[in-house]
Amino acid sequence: DKVEVMGGKLFVNGVEQEEPFTAEDAEYDFGPVVVPPGNVLVLGDNRNHSLDGHIWGFLPTENVIGRAVFVYWPPWRCGSTGMF
What we know:
By secondary structure, this protein is mainly β. About 5% of the residues lie in helices and about 25% in strands.
């Protein structure tokens, strides 16, 4: 996948992503980058205050050792529905 943050918005393969969970638009531009096979690009939902993949790069999937089991933010999505 090709990933880019441009004009405060996230684009994946040229398609703007709908992200109602982000606190605000990104105040930086990033990419475009192509995520290599066997890797993921992790971006935080608090984009302007997250030390995430736009800072440290790609994460090998072999280093992903857990899975989400509970959503606590935003409050209206709190719970484990759809996690298992």
